[in-house]
Amino acid sequence: MTGPTTERQRHVILDALRGLALMGIALANFPEFALWTFLSSEQQAAMPTACIDEIVRFLLYLVVDGKFYSIFSILFGIGFSLIMERHGLRLFVRRMLILVIIGFLHLMFIWSGDILLLYAVGGLLLTLMIGLSDKSLLLLALSLILIPVGLDALIEFGGFNFPEPFYQAWWNKAEALGINEANFASWLRDANSYGQMFAFLIQGAYERLWEFVEGHRLPKVVGLFILGYLASKHRLYTRLQDLPLRKALYWNVSIGLPTSLLYAWSATSGHPWGLTVHSLLYGVSVIPLAIVFIIGICLLYLQSPKSVVFRWLAAPGRMALSCYISHSLIGVLLFYGLGFGLGTSLGLVYIELIALVVFFIQIIVCRIWLNYFRFGPLEWLWRMLTYGRYFPIIK
Q: Helix, strand, coil shares of the chain as percentages rounded to 5?
């Protein structure tokens, strides 16, 4: 195999799940694009839509927060397995090093909430797990996913606040650039030059590093990668009809729904049970509910594999990198001062409606694009850099 995956080699169910994950990621990210997340609780409460926003916020913690990036991470692990099988370790490492560059450019020049850089680092770490037994991989994955609970316990009960230096470095950089708590939410809305936006992005890179450390994101992501790697090793996506999907759905709903309700209540109530319990609720709720979404889509797919719904949902899934980056560009255009400057002016319910509209427009655009082109534009560039040669993009 000397080239990227062909259209005939693709699995529609994987692309459709990736498309679903992109929708959830848009719902999670647009409140940050719109700067609603940066507003104080008093400013959020003063919005005309404040009452319904509280309901929407609870629902986001219940069904969105962490669930769709978990799906995307599991699919990343599946992709790792497929690349290793078809092309080997060297090409995968090269692919991740290029993703490091793409993620760094996205982080520094477009949006501070980038996840690609973390995925690239996690992908490189995943290569260290090759050769481990299934049992070892499963234990390692569960340990990595639950490590944050122990780390938060150290912070809460042991006074070992290791994220604090990163937090101080962030605010020191922000204040050096003239960014403070008073103008933090409005800085990007009022920025009328790219220089002002870039100043925010510089301190935003420090903030993102603190968020990764404070949220223990790397072990969580690598743990999810391993779960996807395990699923792909056993080709679960190719033999869905042989799996006890309904039984697995029942058990994951039984675990994931009540714990997600408790997690959502904890998140919207200021962590009344403490940081450690909140972290534990996150760990035991996110993955089961993410698996519920995965199984639900798989069951629908088994009932109607030729359904047009899956073909349309798979279109953005095939162009995931292009869609993800375009989310950021659309966010800049809509909400920052360089564009329409709508940031801080919209309630959460309107922001999420915009996110859904953007995603459904992406479905249409991606579907039309793939009628004429083999790859998305950024996927095409990434593949050529990975393989070191030109690939025709027009069908």
A: 75, 0, 25
Q: Do residues 195 and 349 touch, judged by C-beta distance below 8 A?
A: no
Q: Which of 24, 26, 36 is nearest to 62 (CA)?
A: 24
pLDDT mean for each 10 residues of the chain (395 residues): 54 95 97 97 96 98 96 96 91 96 98 97 96 95 95 94 96 97 96 96 97 96 97 92 95 97 96 96 95 96 91 96 98 97 97 98 97 96 94 94
- Scanning the structure block, which residue is given the tokens 């609780």? 41
Integer CA distances (angstroms), 370 to 21, 27, 316, 374, in order: 19, 24, 10, 6
* CA-closest candidate to residue 183, choices 341, 344, 51, 323: 344
The per-residue pLDDT for 1 is 47
As a residue count, the chain comes to 395
DSSP code of 240?
G
Instruction: Decide: 30 and 328 in contact? Cβ < 8 Å.
Output: no
Sign of CA dihedral 15, 20, 24, 30: positive
Identify residue 360 by its one-letter amino acid code.
Answer: F
Q: Which of 78, 60, 8 lies closest to 264 in space, CA to CA?
A: 60
Q: Which pLDDT score is estimated for 301?
A: 94
Backbone angles phi, psi at 247, to 5 degrees: -65, -45
pLDDT value at residue 109: 98
Q: What is the pLDDT of residue 163?
A: 95
Q: In DSSP terms, which residues pair with 394 in a beta bridge?
A: 373
